[in-house]
Amino acid sequence: MGVPITFLDKYNPEQFEIIGSSITLGVPMSKFAEKGTYSAGGPRFYLDNGDGTFKRLYDRIVIKNKKVQK
């Protein structure tokens, strides 16, 4: 799950594992979309605007819940 960086204030290592960040896990949009349909900025997470363009999201921390309920 991608959460805002402010999550670190509430981080509980017994409950969550930090996997990485949008900078390290993201893939450049140039691999998926035409130039000019997104804001350049390197590997990040993007949101589809629904009109053929993409919005770059603020940096995210990617976490995993250690206690997944089945």
Mean pLDDT across every amino acid position: 88
Structural class by SSE content:
mainly beta
SSE ordering:
EEHEEE
The domain count comes to 1
Distance between the termini: 17 Å
Please give the largest β-sheet.
3 strands, antiparallel
**From the alpha-carbon coordinates, what is the Rg to the nearest angstrom?**
14 Å
- Helix residue percentage: under 10%
Q: How would the global form be characterised?
A: elongated
Share of β-strand residues: 25-35%
Low-confidence stretches: none
Number of strands: 5
Number of H/I helices: 1
If strands are numbered along the chain, what order do they take across the biggest sheet? 1-5-2
Please explain how this structure is put together:
- The protein is built from 1 helix and 5 strands, in the order E-E-H-E-E-E.
- By secondary structure, the protein is mostly beta strands.
- The chain has one domain.
- The strands form 2 sheets. It has a 3-stranded antiparallel β-sheet. It has a two-stranded antiparallel sheet with strand order 3-4.
- Strand 3 and strand 4 form a beta hairpin.
- It is elongated and about 45 Å long.
- The two termini are 17 Å apart.
